[in-house]
Amino acid sequence: MRFRPSLFLFLLWPLSSHCQYSAERAVQFVRHLAVEIGPRPMGSPSEHRALEDAVSEFRAAGCDTAYIMPMVRNSKMNTSSGIAVGIKRGSSTRIILIGGHIDSAGPEVPGADDDGSGAAVVMELAREFGRKPMRSTLVFCCFGGEEEGLEGSKYFASSFSGIDSMDLMLQADMANGLGRIEIDPDSHTASAPSWLVSAALEEYYKLGYGHLRYPTHFFSLNYAFKQASGSDHESFLARGVPAIDFSTDVGKPIHTPRDNFENYDAAGLKRTCELFARLIDRFDSGVPVRRTERYWFYLLFHTPILVPLWAVVAFSVLSIALAVAASLSVRRRREPRDSPLRVRWSGIKIALASLIIAACGWLSSDLIALIRGIRHPWLTSIPLYYLFALPSVAIGAWLSIRMLRKLRVSHCPYLFLWRAAVLLALPIVALAVVSLARETFYLKLAVEPAVVLFLVSLAGMIRRPLLNLFLVALSPWWMFRLIFSEWDDLLFRGIASALPSSPGAWLIFNGGMILLLSLMLLPFLYALAFVIRDARELKPLVSIAGSMPALFVSVVSFLSMAGYLVTIPVYNQLWYRDARITERCDLSRHKRSITVQGSEYLKGMRIAHAGADSSIGSNITEVEVQPGSEFDTTWLSVERTEHHEQSGDTTRYDVELRLAATRRPLAVSITYSTSGKVVGGFGSPYLFYSNREGTHLEWYSFPDSGLTIPVRFLVAGRDSVRENIEVMFDSLADPVTVEGEMTYVIPRTLFSSNGRYGS
């Protein structure tokens, strides 16, 4: 029997809390979703079962109405997903919606944290308010399809008849433990009103909790791009509904098979439930104003700083104006053009130093990877590798100082200040132009370079060497937080999982990152060169930084950290390495293949297939397995019936595809393409979309084992239309076993078939 102290404490909550939550019931609902039902990808039978169970819970909680809103298609895919809805009618038509998503990120992902916990919060609030008289009508939603692009909430927001009466939307996307929790009032086009942000923070801190943050730098970058991360509250902000999301630590193993019940800490349920209950009570009688806003948000301790975008523009203009004034002021102290001390190519020499420093810092983790024979040794200890990068950067700085002494750089401070100002002003202007042209939040990204430009320009206006050095030294933090942001753990782990393992991919990725980091570092180095050249008092500091004792300290720190890092475990209870088994069967060419791949080296794994066992003893990330006689090619059959009519030089095709599988597939994708890219006159009763690759019909996930798909299209002249069918299963047609310590396995079988119509 395993003792869970967090669960024991959780069971005591009803004895001490003013809220009528059942801790045992809340934990049981998370367990029901993650263990008894299991993974719940959009459209799957397991997701539908979870939706049905949610509706039953809503009815038992006292909701007046409870049902599943079906979603048979979304923005791109045919599916059979939906939204579980429970409605508790109040004395007014004013609506408050409480939501969480009930799907998980894949057929191997149990989704206890993301977002079984959020669905449990919705259930507990339904039980709390289901039999309580309310002024506002409460709508409780468990959305399907969030992990596939907020599809369930988008569909609900566009289809629900009461959307115009909705005053408030509260989203719970992960409630795991009492550690870090994040407030997210943003979307790609709008943000929650300031009154909602202030109220949420006020109620949260009244409850006595801590660890709340707003990831300013990541969200500025994230919400500049429409395909980036987000949650279901975005769908309501897009419809003008004040909406806000609360999510716990994204550094946990969400979107992986390790997001299971064993790794879930139930203590976070009560915190989110209490917060949402307070907000529901606070706004039951109405909200100050139903609107959204646009601002830049920074949480300074407990105080929200909401800067309207017009103020961001004003500050950006001020920074550029200050840079111009500083440059003109320093220009009076510039070196004469005919000076015998004039040095050429100083800007390029500083740029070379920037490359050296960036390379030393970025590649430091690769040295540990080389020593340990592990591609991603930092997986469970990212903060330690940041510390390890500091002596690496110091060594790079020492090398740069020594190099610049030999190459010589200009003594003219103006030469460096105007370069720094231009490099910082260019992205500000570019982001402002793009924001105006596309009406997006790109302008938020201008804050970081604008702050740096302001600090550097201030250093140009104030002739106080130590203060100037402090201002310039402070400036890189703002720029580099865009890369090493609050969500860096999720970002870097995702990149590590998706990055191809070939040497070419390694060179391209790392070379690109070094170039990017050096470009971000370059204006800081120009500003630093300006400060040093403008104040002779700082020359001794440069001498110290480039001395042998400085190198000795850096090297000792580097070796000490390296010695420690090679000893710590790379994997733990939360983080495993992956092994992906992909079997392919081309029905048209009668070809089969089996590949085992990993984002980490496969060394030490055992592969059992066709009665033979083998162990991998080398640092490889991919191995081919010879398909055996047990490869069952009968899993899928494809039949086509076509009828065509010619009119002039155009032929119309009516095609009926019949796909029959022995089990329900995970996904189906059918593409029609032609030399002209866009297939003319295409039609089908199913949802389809077109892009540069052709016209696509897609099903996800676990559609029926039999699909009849009628399509029609036109073929002009001697052209032809190519048909490519891909059907993916989440199991193996040819049994292969892969085992390794702390390893999870992702099995896939992909059947394909090709057709051609016309000449």
Describe this entry's structure for a reader.
α11 (309-331) runs antiparallel to α15, α16 packs parallel to α19 and α17 runs antiparallel to α19 (503-534). The longest helix is centred in the last third of the chain and has 32 residues, at 503-534. This protein is of the alpha+beta class and 759 residues long. The strands form five sheets. Strands 1-2-4-3-5-8-6-7 form an eight-stranded mixed beta sheet, sandwiched between helices. The radius of gyration is 30 Å and the shape is globular. Helix content is 41%, strand content 24%. It folds into three domains: 5-293, Aminopeptidase (3-Layer(aba) Sandwich); 312-565, no CATH class; 577-759, no CATH class.
Question: What is shown here, in short?
Answer:
With 759 residues, the chain is α+β, with helices and mostly antiparallel strands. The chain contains 21 helices and 25 strands.
